[in-house]
């Protein structure tokens, strides 16, 4: 199943108002223990890059970090205000 | 189902060698027709940001862009060379 199928599947249930949204997912599969955790720093930089394209307020950004087995998954969900383009 | 469950589900089938990987997914849900398509430019900048954290060669990066309904999904898969940290 492709990510798009997964996304369309999860979206159909939520009858949310049609708003422009941007979802960024960063999945880091580690090959072994240890190694620096650069996801938090990377997250800040990714949001900074995105803010160059769309004007986004801190309240529009939801961040979640999940860890399981060898995976760290960082998910950033941004609801874009109407007419948010730069 | 969370993205992590989706990811773990897809990974179990592929008995690939344990390599460090980074997967970036950018899902843009448009609220209507038109509007500039900034994903390609955003993609270049995201890869540039990531290259600041891990040394990545062009051959290690696979990019795919899918479009369906109101969604554009950009997927960047990076296999990190051993000892790739900066």
Automatic annotation (TrEMBL), chains A, B:
Indicate yes or no for the key word Secreted: no
Q: Which GO terms describe its biological process?
A: cell division
Q: Which InterPro entries match?
A: MinE, MinE_sf
Q: Where are the transmembrane segments?
A: none
Q: SUPFAM superfamilies this protein is in?
A: Cell division protein MinE topological specificity domain
For the keyword Transcription, the answer is no
Task: Classify the source by domain of life.
Answer: Bacteria
Keyword set for this entry? Cell cycle, Cell division
Role this protein plays: Prevents the cell division inhibition by proteins MinC and MinD at internal division sites while permitting inhibition at polar sites. This ensures cell division at the proper site by restricting the formation of a division septum at the midpoint of the long axis of the cell.
Protein name, per record: Cell division topological specificity factor
Q: Which organism is it from?
A: Chitinimonas prasina
Gene of this entry: minE
């Amino acid at each position: 199943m492709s990510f798009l199928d997964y996304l369309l599947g999860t979206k159909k249930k939520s009858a949310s108002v049609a708003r422009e949204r941007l979802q960024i997912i960063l999945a880091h599969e580690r090959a072994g223990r240890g190694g620096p955790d650069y996801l938090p720093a990377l997250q800040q930089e990714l949001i900074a890059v995105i803010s160059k394209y769309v004007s986004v307020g801190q309240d529009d950004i939801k961040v979640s970090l999940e860890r399981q087995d060898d995976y760290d998954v960082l998910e950033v969900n941004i609801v874009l205000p109407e007419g948010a383009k730069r």
